[in-house]
Amino acid sequence: SERARERGIAYYTPSIDSYSASRLTMVSALQKALVNNELALHLQPKLDLRTSRISGVEALIRWPAREQPVPADEIITLAEQTGLIKPLTRWVLEQSLELRSRLLDSGHLLDLSVNISPNNLREPDFPIFVKRLMGAHLQHRGAIIFEVTETSMMQDPVNALKALNSLAYEGIPVSIDDFGSGYSSLSYIKQLPASEIKIDRSLITDLATREEDRVIVQTTINMCHSLGYQVVAEGVEDEATADLLKGMGCDMIQGYFLSRPLPLEQMLAWLSKRRE
Ligand code: C2E
Ligand code: CA
Ligand code: CA
Ligand code: CA
C-alpha cells in the first residue's frame, strides 16, 4: 500500500473500513430492534404555566437494549440515511397512541407530542397512513401533536406545506420545534398550519444570565402570541428560568427542571405523585 500511495492510487484506510462496517452492523441491529419491538418511547412532561398543570408529554425515542447507549438524534439520523425512518415513524405513531391510552387508563388525559422527520413529510402516502391510523382511533383525534423542525420545513417547503396542510385538515395539531435555532423565515412560518411554537433550548439555557437572550425570547413570545401561536420553552433546567418565562407570558415549559424523559411506568408514578 506504500507503493500504491506513491502511485497515487486511492485506497481505503482500515479506520474507514471498520467505521463503515460498524455502521452497517448498527443499521441491521436497528432494523432488528424495530422488528423485535426493542425500541422504546420515553415521556417528558410539558407544564402549562398559567394553570400549573401538566398539559401533555413528548415522546422521545430510546434504544434500551444496547449496552452502549445510542443518542436519539443518532438513531434518527441513521434511520433517515437508510430509509428506516418510514417504518420507524410508523412504529412511533402506533406506539404513541398506545401510550396515550395507557395514560388515559390511569386517569391522565394528556396531549402526546411526537417528532416527525422531514423525510416523512416527503412520503407521498404519509398523510394517508396518518389518516387511517387516526381513523382507527377516532377518540384520539386532536390529541396527538406533530412536532416538525423549522429547518426541516425549509428543505422542501412546497411538499412539506402540502403534507402539513393535509394533516391539519385531519385535525392534527402541528408544532414548530427548535424555533430560533436555524434561519427563520417568518413570512414562511406564518403560512404553516401550526398552533404551537417551541423555542429552542439554545435560547433558554442562559436566559437568567444573558440580557440578549431575554430580549430575543420576549420578542419571540410577543410575536408568536400576536400571530396566534401557543409558545413552549424547551430545555428549562431551573426554577429561576421557569419564573422568568412565566413573567414573560410564555404558555408552557419543558425541561429537566420538571423531569427528564421517563419510561411510561415511571412517568405514571411521577404524574400521580405530582397530583398528591
Ligand atoms: P427535540 O425534539 O428537540 O427533543 C428535546 C431534546 O432535549 C431531547 O433529547 C430531550 O431529552 C432533551 N432535553 C429535554 N429537556 C432538557 C433539558 O432541560 N436540558 C437538556 N440539556 N436537554 C433536555 P433526546 O431525547 O436525546 O432527543 C434528541 C432529538 O432526537 C430530539 O430533539 C428530536 O429531534 C430527535 N428525536 C427523538 N425522538 C424522536 C422520534 O421519535 N422521531 C424523530 N423523528 N425524532 C426524534
Ligand atoms: Ca421535539
Ligand atoms: Ca426541540
Ligand atoms: Ca432538537
UniProtKB/TrEMBL annotation:
Species assigned in the record: Marinobacter xiaoshiensis
Tree of life domain: Bacteria
Entry protein name: EAL domain-containing protein
Residues of the full protein shown: 569 to 844 of 853
Domain EAL as annotated: residue spans: 23-275
Native organism taxonomy: Bacteria, Pseudomonadati, Pseudomonadota, Gammaproteobacteria, Pseudomonadales
